[in-house]
Amino acid sequence: MDIAFRRLRPSSDPEPLIRFLTGESWPFHSVSEVDRETARQWIADGRFDNEENRSFWIDDDDTVGLVRLMDLTDDTPLFDLRIRAEHRGRGIGVRAVTWLTRYLFEELPDIRRVEGTTRQDNRPMRRVFLRCGYAKEAHYREAWPAMDGTVHDTVGYAILRRDWLSGTVTVPEWDDEK
User: Fold this and answer.
1) Distance in angstroms (rounded) separating the CA atoms of residues 177 and 166
2) Cβ count near 160 (within 10 Å)
3) Does the keyword Repeat apply (predicted)?
4) What's phi and psi for 55, nearest 5 deg?
């Protein structure tokens, strides 16, 4: 599989993005079922393409996913990753996070770190973070409300520029309250 990343410009043609977002369930996102009105509003608000955000299609033979980079004017950007259900479990997440990490550090020389969060029960994404050199930095209890009213723990990961450059992982000192 030879995936590629293609810049998304939803203002010129929003329909492919609307179809992507509404075409299936996103079980580990706070809005797991996106309707057309919500998708249109997100696009109009600049959620996918403005000074703070850039988005990229993940392409194989067709569009298999979406990477959204956020807080790009901050020194610690975040990202959102959505992979279509039929393409999950094929290593696309690791390739996408590896790509976006390199992209951010190379394109934005002032950033110090890249962060991401996921639900505690999203084991595949947690493995992606670790395989890509991210360190677990946070565990927020009952911090991720779901559409059905349940509340999940949130786990935060980050990679430092210096770790990315050296190929190491610096873990936080967890036991620092003597």
Assistant:
1) 29
2) 18
3) no
4) -130, 150
Q: Rounded CA gap, 104 and 102, in Å?
A: 6
Question: What number of CA atoms fall less than 13 Å from residue 124's CA on the CB side?
Answer: 14
Residue type, 133: G
Break the chain into its structural domains and give their ranges.
Answer: 4-166
pLDDT digits (tens, 9 = 90+) for 100-142: 999 999 999 999 999 999 999 999 999 999 999 999 999 999 9
In sequence order, what DSSP letters do the residues of 13-54 get, joined into one string? --HHHHHHHHSS--TTSSS-S--HHHHHHHHHTTSSSSSS-E
**Percent of the chain scoring above 70 in pLDDT:** 99
- Order of all β-strands in the sheet with 4-7: 4-7, 54-59, 63-70, 78-83, 113-119, 151-160, 135-145
How far is it, in rounded angstroms, from Cα 81 to Cα 58?
A: 10
